[in-house]
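Each lists chain and fold; for instance:
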Amino acid sequence: MKTVLIVDDNIKNLDLFKDFVESWGYETVTAQQGKDAISLAERYLPDIILLDVMLPGMSGYEVCRELKENTKTQHIPVVMITVLNDIADRIHGYKIGADQFLVKPVDYNELHAILDSLFGKKSMFDEMESRGTVIESLNVLLKQCLSSEAVVVADRKFHYCRKLCDYLNLSKNETEQGLLLVRIQDIIATLCKQKETVPEDEMTFLEPLKMDKWVKPLLLYIRGYLNGVDETLQRKINEYHLEKLAGISFVLDRYGSILVSENGDDNKALLKLRQECSQYAYPDDVVRLLEQIVNDELFMKSLKDK
C-alpha cells in the first residue's frame, strides 16, 4: 500500500490530515519535528511527503532541502503546506525541490487530486533507471569487453572526468552526463575496433534513447574537433549548455588515446597533450587542470612508494 509521511507540529492538523489520507486508502506515518521527519523518510521511504512550512526548530524549507540533497530520499515528491501565499515563498520552495504547494486552510478535494497525480508520476519514475544505475551497469559491461590494460585507461579517464567536473564546479547532473559520456565513448570505440566500423555507424543504438539529443552532439563534437566544428553542431552544443562538458570530454578522449600510445606513461602523455594543446588550440583551462590533477596524484603516489 502507498504511504504518505505527514509532518505538522499541530496535533489537531496532523490528526485531520491523517484521517483524510487514510480514508482515501493510503497508509500514513506522522512526525511533528523536522529532524524526526528526515529520520522517518530515510527509514520508511514514503511515496509522498506532506510537509508543513512552519515547524519549530528546523523549518519545512530546511527539511525539504535536506530531503532533496539526500540520495535516498531526493526522489520522493514533497507537498509543502503553508499559510503564506507569497509568490517569493513559493519560488524559494520550488528552488529547493518542493513539488507542490497547498495554502491553508487546505481544500481536501484539491489535496486528494494532488496526491493522485503525484502517485501516478512517481510510479512512472520508479520504473525508470537512474543515470547513476546506468553508469554502474556500463562499468560492468565495459570491464567484460576490454582487456585489463584497456580497463585501466578507461577507469583513469572516468576518474579524471569526475575530478575535472568537481574542480570546475559542474552540477551533479552535468557530472553524471560527463561520466556517462566517457563510458559510452569507450563502448563505441570498442565496437568500432571489433567490427572495423566508424563511430557514426555505432551511434545508432542511442537513437531510441532520450539522452541521444545531448550525447550524439558531444560525440560528434569530439570526433570533429580537430577538423573544425560546424555551426549547426556548435549551436546544438550551446542549446543544451554543453560547452564545459564538450571541452572536458574532448581533452579526456585525447588524453586516453595518447596514454594508450605511450603505454600508460602519464608523464609522456601529459607532455604530448601539452604539445598538441599549443598546436591545435585545445581548451587550455581543461588541459592545465588535468595536468594539475594527474601531477598531484603522481606526487602522492611517489610519497607512498617511498
Observations:
- The chain is about 65% helix and 10% strand.
- The two ends are 59 Å apart (CA to CA).
- The chain has two domains: 3-126, 131-305.
